[in-house]
Amino acid sequence: MLMLRRWSVRHAATLGRLYRWGARWMPRLAPLVRGLGTERSERLLRPLERSGKGLFFDCRMCGQCVLGHTGMACPMNCAKQLRNGPCGGVRADGGCEVNPGMRCVWLEAGDGRRRIEGSAQAPWLPPLDHRRGGQSTWIQVIAPDPQVPGVEPLQPQRAANSASTAAPPPASALEAVLRSGRFVVTVEIAPPDSADPSALLARAWPFRELADAINITDGAGGNCHMSSVAAASVLAAAGFEPVCQVACRDRNRIALQGDALGAAALGVRNVLCLTGDDVSQGDHPQAKPVFDLDAVNLLGVLHGMTARGTYASGRALEQPPRLFLGATANPFAPPYAQRVDNLERKIDAGARFIQTQFCFDLDRLRAFMDEVCRRGLHRRAAILVGAGTLSSARGLKWMAEHVPGVAVPDAVIARIAAATDQKSEGRRVCIETVQALQRLEGVAGVHLMGHRNEATLAQVIVEAGLRPAKPTIAAALPA
After folding, report:
1. pLDDT value of position 6
2. pLDDT value at position 158?
3. Mean pLDDT for all residues in the chain
4. What pLDDT is attached to residue 478?
5. Cα–Cα distance measured from residue 429 to residue 261, given in angstroms and rounded to the nearest whole number
6. Residue 335: is the preceding peptide bond cis (ω within 30°)?
7. DSSP 3-state assignment of 421?
8. Which of 201, 206, 271, 211 lies closest to 237 in space, CA to CA?
9. Which of the 8 DSSP states describes residue 305?
10. How far apart are CA 75 and CA 82, in angstroms?
């Protein structure tokens, strides 16, 4: 099966021509379908379609075939059911985050599209209609039913670019500071394993006067913690500027929209849309991943709620939420050439700020940012580059080997390993990275990360010259 699937990608150009020919020829069978009846015709076609497409494409019969858009690589083979490009966890060898022995489906799709279209960039595909699962797509090609949703690519909803069109007021303090042009600092903290919010506030306190916003992770690494929406609302009530991370892994589109409304009602304005990490590596490996939407379609749904005042179903909201939407990018994971395509699709879907994975490889980042600036994407969304530090070279090496999507050059690990004080040397590497990012065109700020390393990150902010030390902060910094 795997060999035939790869054969189909290698021969995508020929199969693409065959598909286009079939799409022109098959409607001639419409009188036969009408004579037999649609239900009887589908019963006859379904096993033929399942066998043929299953053999060549490992088809899962989603009922909304998009092989013509995805280079003859079926996206239903993606363990996260992504419809719009690879996740940020693709391994260095191109292996899937969830199934390392399988090559990422979206790398295969990129190869196939290049053979068909000359470009790896696929269109923005809508989320699955799960009612269609197991049904024939061929019947819709032969005799389309206007009541059945199609699978036409979605179009980006871009704001009018007119000098007479005034920009709406910022939805959040983070959006306001990004508009000001100041180099922005955001930090990331994990919510506690507790119903007591005091531990969360203690982690946030060192950044009271140093960070412009604080990200709250949503089950990072597939591990369970306090709800991101609840933790973000606790920070908002305490006077912090939170960024609520929302992962598609654990909730369907109904729950995701409800959480966004609830967050807005509790004073949370910044929402970062993620696909989510693999559950098998977390503390509940027996959990069922949901992945009803991917990050691109979640952005599209939430943008529709804010800009058009409607749910994904089309039903009107009584009061739309005011949200500043963000997304993630990973310039440091394959397919490197397609990462800017993926970023552009997220911006088209509604992202207005972007936070990247840890940056330890400045050369790789420069190549990414050169293309971002060439396309003008840095003017459509603020790019905040991830940086951070761990306490030892051993911890850094473990993260590089076990956290898909994190790339750490051997030279960086060797430098920290050779230091007498590895924690201090790691901090110096982080400071040097942050200072280099300040000089890089298109970078609007830095996003600092480090598991339960708040005091060190606060020190990085001050020592990198991003913010002056404040009297209330000095006591929180190490001597």
Report:
1. 87
2. 60
3. 93
4. 46
5. 40
6. yes
7. coil
8. 201
9. I
10. 7
Q: Is the dihedral of CA 102, 105, 107, 110 positive or negative?
A: positive
Coil, helix or strand at residue 422: helix
pLDDT of residue 472: 54
CA distance 209 to 349: 33
In contact, 349 and 299? CB cutoff 8 Å: yes
pLDDT recorded at residue 163: 43
Structure tokens at 449: 């990360």
Give me the helix-helix angle, 12-25 and 105-117, nearest 10°: 70
Helix (H) or strand (E) holding 242: strand 242-247
Block residue for tokens 């239900």: 39
């979605």: which residue's tokens?
154
pLDDT of residue 165: 59
Q: Quote the CA–CA distance of 327 and 313 in Å, as a whole number.
A: 23
Query: To which H or E segment does residue 9 belong?
Result: helix 2-10
Q: How many CA atoms lie within 13 A of 325 on its CB side?
A: 25
The tokens describing 128, both together, are 């699955």
Q: Which residue has the tokens 């529709």?
A: 304
**Could you give the CA distance from residue 365 to residue 333 in angstroms, rounded to a whole number?**
11
3-state SS, one letter per residue, for 105-127: HHHHHHHHHHHHHCCCCCCECCC
Count Cβ atoms below 10 Å from residue 414 Cβ, excluding itself: 11
Transcribe 306-360 into DSSP letters: III-B-TTSPBPSS----EEEEEE-TTSS-GGGHHHHHHHHHHHT--EEEEEE--
**Nearest CA-CA partner of 434 in 467, 473, 478, 411:** 467
Quick check: helix, strand or coil at residue 40? helix
The Cα–Cα gap between 37 and 223 comes to: 50
pTM for this prediction: 0.94
411 C-beta neighbours (distance < 10 Å), count: 10
| Domains of the chain: residue spans and CATH | 2-142 (no CATH), 173-474 (3.20.20.220)
Q: What is the pLDDT of residue 379?
A: 97
Q: Which of 100, 103, 59 is nearest to 335 (CA)?
A: 103
Q: What is the mean pLDDT of each run of 10 residues along the chain (479 residues)?
A: 82 94 93 92 94 93 94 95 95 94 95 93 93 93 83 73 67 98 97 96 96 97 96 98 98 98 98 95 94 97 97 97 98 95 97 97 97 98 96 91 91 96 95 97 97 91 92 49
- Residue 448 tokens read as 């600092």
